[in-house]
Here is the input.
Amino acid sequence: MSARRPGVDRSLTLVFAALGGEGGGLLSDWIIDACTASGLLVQATSIPGVAQRTGSTTYYMEFMRAPESGDEPLFGLYPAPGYVDMAVATDLVEAARLIEKGYVTPDRTTLIASTHRVYAMSEKTAMGDGAFHAPRIHDAARRFARHLVLRDFSIAAREHGTMANALLLGAMVADERFPVGEEALEAAIRGRGVAVEANLRGLAAGRRLAEEPESAPSAPEAAVARASSDDLSSFPEGARDVLDAAIARLADYQDDDYARLYLERVAAVDRAAGRTPDGVTVTREAARYLALWMTYEDVMRVADLKSRATRRGRIRREAAAKDGEPVRVTEFFKPGIDEFSTIAPRFLTRWLTALAERRGGVERFHVPLHIRSDTILGHAALRFVASLGRRRRRTSRFSQEQRAIERWLAAIDRAAPVSSALGLAIARCGQIVKGYGDTRIRAMRNLEAIYSALIDPAVERRDARFAEPIDGARLAALADDEGKALRAYLAAAGGMPSESDAAARNADTDQQDKTTRLGGNA
Amino acid sequence: MERSFAKEVQSLKLGDGEIFHGEGILAITKALLQSGVSYVGGYQGAPVSHLIDVMADARDILDELGVHFEACANEASAAALCGASINYPMRGAAVWKSTVGTNVASDALSNLASAGVKGGVLIVLGEDYGEGASIIQERSHAFAMKSQMWLLDPRPHLPTVVDLVEHAYELSERSNTPVMMEFRIRACHMHGRFTARDNKAPAVSRNKLIEDPDFDYGRICLPPSTYVQEQHKISHRFPAALEYIREHRLNEYFDGPLDDVGIVMQGGLYNSVLRALQQLGLADTGGKAKLPLAVLNVTYPLVPEEISGFCAGKRAVLVVEEGQPAYIEQNIESILRRTDVQTRVHGKDVLPMAGEYVGEVLLNGLSKFLERVSPGGVDIAAVTRVPRDIAAIKKEAADALGAPVPTRPPTFCTGCPERPVFSAIKLAQKDTGKLHVAADIGCHTFSTLAPFNIGNSVLGYGLGLSSAAAVGPAMDRRVVSIMGDGGFWHNGLTSGVSGAMFNETDGVLVIMNNGYTSATGQQFIPSTGKNFKQHETGMTIKRALEGMGVKWIRTVTTYRVSKMVRTLREALSTRQGGLKVIIAESECQLARQRRLKPQVRDKLKRGERVVRTKFGVDEDLCTGDHSCIRLSGCPSLTVKPSPDPLRADPIAHVNEGCVGCGLCGEVADAAVLCPSFYRAEVVQNPGWLDRLLHRLRQRVIGAPAA
Here is the structure.
């Protein structure tokens, strides 16, 4: 063991970044116990505080062999930038935080981190993709660490029924500079008596994982090229993977005719966008969002997807149910007039809607319906509703959605020839269209606001300079669900004024304002 | 407490010569017993909760020694506890989080300090300052100065800390003055070791009773005694303290070859200053520095002779004093002026006025100081390069990452019963319009963070309702005040509820009744139902409210979001005036899981039927708009990449941390969000009926597919 002991000349420093509740305290206890038993001097400290409630926190340790003089060495209480030998993180963004703070330096730091993500609130609440860009963290880690171990320790942790802390400990001990050996840590894990067997397995697995060469990060799942019955040779190659997936989706959603309608629509976009690389991107993105929009989630679709055998299998897997363990599944529906209208004849819907609007708005009328989809009756009910999907074309919602889709496609068709960027910006606005109930209504309202402030004038004036503001407006619409960011954005861009002062503003100056500011932007 | 501290309690039993291993705050606990205390009390709060927890669990030791432990209602009662030491030679200790706890305690502390003590009193302060702190950023130092109490700030080295605790009692008794000892967050959680001594049974205690109560008008805080007491502070107590500090060398002085300059520091900052000197190449591994050092383990009062003696003959000294105002620096300046020592004093000119002195801050400050005074024999270029290199590497790292790493403040735990209340308030506001919410201290303060951002002001522990008193009448809508059960008993009942009733306040109060002071580690409170001795208390929030005359009281289970929304709407709209109280009830999930997990494990082992609940999101139904997350913020409700190649945005996902609290379903229901959520109940060790039904259903519906 002497080979792995830190020298007496200075202490070996270790900082461990985790989230509250991830077992960082136990991890330091294991290390402290192992060091103490091995005759090493160790000092550890932490700042749990309220961070123990899932906030980010750090644990800091220093080790040293007792000097022969008998003098006590000096141990620090804070990790210092440029002075950390081993930096360990339970999640990729926590690793980034260590790098950001200067605790990872090429001259001395071994960085060990799990590549899985526990998303921060701001990353989760964004309407779109708010996640921190992981490849940048990988790049920075490679650049700043002297020795780097980046693995997804969370998968192995789950397999061994433990937490990432035991796995990370295994990875630490795999590093030659770590002050104690595996046996000492095993003894410490036994000594603490917390989930001993699972943690011992985790320790060994972590070590193996760290010693294996890093497997190339799996590329984002590429759409599986499917042999489709439709001939897609008339479409640009760069869009065919999307079309493949889309056709399957459309046919599954409705029927082959609906899929054909989809292809006709895409063909129109393709003609307008042209076959330049940028034009193909317009087609591809429009095709993507068109497929999602045309397969909007109505009550029949929901019932259909919820009553499939593959879904039952997925639920069993996610709930980790063992063979022979029954799984009861409860669905939470709260159908309202919107949902009713997709089933009922139109005259009844119109009458009901009118009634509801007099009584305080359509969105107020909902019936909570908790259905057990694992029971025979519940399943039958879902299948029945799903079967109504055959007459989807006759619902008012269908015509409504098709009108909105046509409007969007028409804008793309007119904008793409002006500039691919403008066409692309409008196509990407399809991203806004999502959600159920209120969320969907607000999304459509946001889209409407972008139409009137930016898209309509852009198309009208054939003005390519609108591309950038439209992109910005889309991102703003996805920033929050109350339309706050979008209102602020449009107001700043001279577009839609905030709701309260909308009436007060003079339309002429509004128009003028918008034009001049947009000019400035471009 | 639902947790056991049996292991920690064992280390309190160590005797002469045995080696103690453990955290700083536990070492202090042990040191109190070694000092022969008669009583210990306090109020929980990071970073010193541990002392209370361990004491509450250490009844056998305390009984044996005759030490009284009091789980105090708040810091004021903890300080008042020390009244025992005014008349009798009883040593005692009180502990709390500072400065908030000291604020609450200061009425009793002032009186205690004025009367003076016969038995030694030590106030252990968890100085909650800097990274990891949860409170307003202030210093405890001012309290020591204004009341004439002595303030110790020991070097973070357990043997030193333990010695100083024992000295603190001698000092307190020699100078008839309560002594405060502050510990920073990291020092409290610092793991170290020291050689233990036997515990000492107190001279006066539950086991050795007082037969003759003492009366001395001189110890009553009423004129004319108070005038005499103030004079006594100056004429006797202050000089006695200086003498003791000097005589027992409580402050430490270290020589160094570069003796035309020096550093004076708070003891608590010693390790960090030395580490910075090491980084600058000015100290060796053992902490031998090239500059002379004055380590002030006692930061109030300063001993003038010591200060002027250290500074005399030096061109300049650096005072390293964390936080503001710079009391110590001013004190040193004034001592040097009076003793006519012409040493230049640096401090806040090279170090920041505000904020924690972490390694990098000290490194920069020391480097600046050295650059200004440039002591002979120091390669200034080499010194200043160190912080420059670090700044450069941080800049490079920031550039490489491209954007600031998202912050990760604490939030409600998975399954927390308080979260649904804020989901309900957020939903209720859709109808009522924006509300002014007077927030309070506790886990529920996390409501002010994303995704709720609910709470317009925070004024102090238990002060939610009081803080709505003036803004309420000026508001278009009724104000909603929040209070935790911890805050309610701490002082919310008396300052908030009684005030509101007396003034006929028309408003809504939501009391989070989760059974414990959850934020500080689930300590028991009156409404927990039992005390730390596990005896029934019979105290409830509802009965206390009724006793105050509150008429409109509704108790709602927090997880019932729809019902909570309806109740809130009713409270906000009813014609009935006066205070409307909603008791939002459900047990702290941390405590609940800690209790349930072993029970479930045992049941499963015995082959008994257990139903495990987990929520899930259908990945093909979720459209990735994340509105559920904005209404919940549960750590186990997260996002993952969509398996659908057409969907670019990540979708919602319930991870394996889910405890099945039910909020997802409730929110989806109350907010009419989306049908993607489902509740899965796995029947473990199913009975024959379960199995029969399961087989039947599978036959009719069809087996699950991969």
